[in-house]
Write a structure and sequence with these properties.
With 842 residues, this protein is α+β, with helices and mostly antiparallel strands. The chain contains 28 helices and 21 strands.
Length: 842
């Protein structure tokens, strides 16, 4: 019972410390809680959107594939020989098989995946492609075998606004075929537009005789089946499983999603620094109160508990508010931007919102941890202060005559640079992000040394302006106070500048690349699997005003089952006849009779295809090519290979082309030539061709680029807003805490106007110092983003372009915000009379 008075006194002391601080300085707590809430909201929202998009994408993949246990898939849209089907059916470990023809189709402006299936076989192997309701393909009547019968998923019926019994004109593989809607496929995913017809009708009516695209399998012994199938599959077929399909879809956007997650956590990290700044200033302001309580018997742990409990309260409020805001942001982002946040990874499907409780708990814990860590460090500083000295001192705890250590900052920067040089882990730049974190910590740790070094020569000079002299002497004599104010500014500014520099460099590189590759006057491209046959190409070449036409073919080519397909491009390349091929590496002279291939930079980084190397591609069997060069390509993240169109046609027999670049005669209107070329097209092909001019295509490409980086721009804006809020809160708290100092200066003869000028100069110096430190650190961090994280994530390289306008704007904004905030807070702090301001100055 003897300990009860001490226990109650400790509780009363804690309540007095925390409650009094909240009552007298609610804005500080609100600002720090909002900073934590913003970080949690952005991180949670991005994670929810990514998770929802992946779940919907996986559902779409299962809807199209029928959720087969294993599948033999064609490596390209050209398919493989259907004679493989009976051999696969007899393989060891295989119980049942179902052949599938897959076509990219279009009805009007609506795209859908058209599947030709053997209804009897599919009912046993992939029943989700058949459906269970009456009027579906398994309804027991002969409708499923009707060559004109089409069964649509619910999503397809909704998009087409069609009803059972309606006749639709379906375009696929260059053929236009009328089909009748015979029923619905209720078992497929609601977000997937699928059409199913009989496989014989698909092969016959869409010119795919003798070719199939997939064989779905049911296995009794997966290991035996895998071993048997691997030995019999031709080069144009590959064995895939549900796991490899998920991995392929995940790899398509994984780097983009991970980068967004990391960037979203930037705001949370900045919020943690803001908590640190605010709590540090709060501790300095209450230094005498802590010392008095220590003198009266409160242990060091009580002081630490008081500050940490404040941090816990800030974290609880901020993290809870962040989860609610993140949920709302995710819902709005899915509705307005889609599951890929505008990046174009999941076109063709609608992402449904998927709540993730584990992610909610994780981000709540991160927000709470950021607030606690931001409070724990100032709490330890307050607890270590000697009570007797603290009762006499309310100023900076650092002696301005002692040199500030620079080596911790240098060690962290060197460690960060070393970590950034390490290779990617599983295709993700984890060490790059770790290196950025270490370098950011090093930059923040070096702020006291930087501020002292920058201000020392200015402080030694004699200034005619009394406010300017006082401002410089105060900042130079209180390095710890200045460093505390600068931490949040430097962190947020550095991260924002790093992002702005990376985006500027990327956009500039894409712009230059587009100017190089868009060298023709007109571009015509087909859709829905249509192509320009030789007769059509011959007619187009005779169009009045056309100087030269170049035809190309582009198809996806699967190299590995768990990776997205590369783009196989066939166009005239032998002899270097294409001046638009932007080569960044050239191979040695080709051996006699060697087939050349040019690989894109992402393909080189993904598959290790270097100039002069002999590689094997699944074209017409396993054809060997020699890499003749590496070319710049910012349009295909999964990689691309380019072969001469003559070699391609000789190997595959494919005479179709799906893209035309046209040069018009001098003085001829390109728009009129485009109209004349369109008029030369067959009626069934005319609606499937898109015509574009270089300026339009370039503008569209840059618009898509900006849309894909819209979230990045938002994160940049949030980072700088949080930084400005930190500047305002820090300068306000510092100014209000110096009320007794201002009273003393008033007694010495300074006017309120001079005090206001002094505070404005102090704020401007603090803001400018933070801006310079943040800009310098940000430019260093940008090199990690540009030369490490971006190549390891997206397999693209670029040169650095510094956004000088952004740098100047950020420096001006930070300097102005700090100066204005200090002046406004100074008016409040100097409002009392000089006698009232020093009445408690013991």
């Amino acid at each position: 019972m003897a300990s009860e008075p001490g226990l109650w006194s400790g509780r009363l002391a804690l309540g007095w410390l925390i409650g009094g601080e909240w009552r007298f300085h609610p804005a500080r707590f609100l600002t720090t809680a909002v900073a934590i809430a913003v970080g949690v909201a952005l991180g949670f929202a991005v994670h929810l959107v990514n998770g929802s998009a992946l779940a919907s994408f996986d559902g779409a993949m299962r809807g199209v594939s029928g959720a087969a246990e294993r599948s033999v898939r064609a490596t390209s849209p050209l398919g493989f020989d259907e004679r493989l089907y009976p051999r696969v059916a007899r393989a060891a470990g295989v119980v049942d098989v179902s052949p599938v023809v897959r076509l990219d189709a279009r009805v009007g402006k609506t795209r859908l995946t058209l599947l030709g299936v053997d209804v009897i076989r599919a009912a046993a192997v992939t029943p989700s492609l058949i459906g269970i309701r009456p009027r579906g393909p398994d309804s027991g009547n002969d409708a499923a075998f009707d060559e004109s019968a089409l069964f649509l998923s619910r999503a397809a019926l909704t998009h087409l606004r069609a009803r059972v019994g309606a006749e639709l004109i379906v375009v696929a593989n260059g053929r236009t075929v009328p089909l009748r809607v015979a029923g619905m496929l209720p078992a497929t995913d609601d977000a997937v537009a699928i059409g199913v017809i009989d496989i014989a009708a698909a092969q016959w009516r869409f010119a795919r005789l003798g070719r199939i695209d997939r064989i779905d399998l049911v296995l009794a012994d997966p290991d035996a089946a895998d071993a048997a199938l691997q030995t019999m599959l031709p080069a144009d077929a590959i064995l895939a499983s549900a796991e490899t399909q998920n991995a392929q879809g995940d790899a398509l956007s994984r780097a983009y999603r991970v980068n967004l997650d990391m960037l979203a956590l930037v705001a949370l990290l900045t919020g943690g620094f803001l908590v640190y700044s605010a709590q540090s200033l709060s501790v300095v302001r209450r230094q005498r109160a802590f010392a008095l309580l220590r003198t009266l018997g409160m242990p060091r742990g009580g002081v630490i508990a008081a500050v940490v409990v404040e941090g816990v309260a800030i974290g609880l409020v901020g993290a809870a508010a962040g989860l609610v805001a993140g949920y709302a942001l995710a819902w709005a982002a899915l509705r307005w931007f889609g599951g890929d946040l505008g990046a174009g990874y999941f076109n063709g499907g609608t992402a449904h919102f998927v709540f993730q409780p584990a992610a909610a708990l994780g981000f709540f814990a991160l927000g709470l941890a950021a607030a606690i860590l931001g409070s724990a460090i100032p709490a330890r500083v307050a607890a270590r202060a000697a009570p007797a000295a603290a009762l006499k001192n309310a100023g900076d705890v650092l002696d301005p005559r002692r040199a500030v250590a620079w080596w911790p900052a240098a060690a962290l920067l060197v460690a960060g640079a070393g970590a950034a040089m390490l290779p990617a882990v599983g295709g993700l730049p984890l060490f790059g992000f770790a290196g950025m974190a270490l370098m950011l910590a090093g930059g923040v740790a070096g702020v006291p040394w930087f501020a002292r070094t920058l201000l020392a020569p200015l402080a030694r000079r004699r200034w005619r302006s009394v406010p300017g002299q006082l401002a410089l002497r105060h900042l130079h004599g209180a390095p710890g106070e200045a460093a505390t104010a600068l931490c949040g500014i430097v962190a947020s500014t550095a991260l924002m500048i790093a992002m702005a520099t990376m985006v500027t460099s990327f956009r500039g590189a894409v712009d230059d690349w587009l100017n190089q590759v868009l060298g023709a006057d007109l571009y015509l491209r087909t859709s829905a699997g249509a192509s320009f046959d030789p007769a059509t190409r011959a007619r187009l070449a005779t169009t009045p005003g056309v100087a030269r036409l170049a035809f190309s073919r582009q198809i996806p080519l699967t190299i590995a089952a768990d990776r997205p397909p590369v783009s196989l491009i066939a166009r005239p390349e032998r002899g270097g006849r294409d001046p638009l091929l932007v080569l960044i590496e050239r191979g040695p002279s080709l051996p006699p009779r060697a087939l050349p291939v040019w690989v894109s930079e992402p393909a080189q980084r993904l598959y290790g295809w270097d100039p002069g190397e002999t590689i094997t591609l699944p074209i017409a069997g396993r054809t060997r090519f020699v890499v003749a060069g590496v070319w710049r390509d910012y349009g295909r993240q999964a990689g691309a290979v380019l072969v001469d169109e003559g070699d391609y046609e000789r190997l595959t027999g494919d005479t179709g082309r799906d893209e035309i670049s046209a040069m018009v005669l001098p003085g001829v209107d390109a728009a009129k030539v485009a109209q004349a070329m369109t008029a030369q097209l067959p009626p069934g092909l005319r609606d499937q061709v898109e015509v574009g001019q270089p300026a339009t295509l370039r503008r569209l490409a840059l618009t898509l680029f900006d849309r894909s980086f819209a979230v990045t721009y938002l994160l940049e804006a949030v980072a700088i807003l949080v930084g400005l809020a930190g500047v305002a809160a820090t300068m306000s708290a510092q100014t209000i805490a110096r009320e007794r100092e201002f009273g003393m200066l008033r007694h010495l003869g300074l006017t309120r106007a001079q005090l206001t000028a002094m505070l404005g100069i102090e704020g401007a110096i603090v803001g400018l110092t933070g801006a310079l430190a943040g800009i310098g650190l940000g430019l260093v961090l940008s090199q990690v983003l540009i030369h490490v994280i971006n190549p390891q994530s997206f397999n693209w390289t670029m040169t650095t372009r510094i956004p000088f306008g952004t740098l100047a704007g950020v420096a001006a904004a930070l300097t102005g915000a700090a100066a204005v905030t200090a002046v406004l807070a100074g008016r409040r702090a100097t409002a009392n009379s000089a006698v009232q301001s020093v009445r408690e100055d013991w």
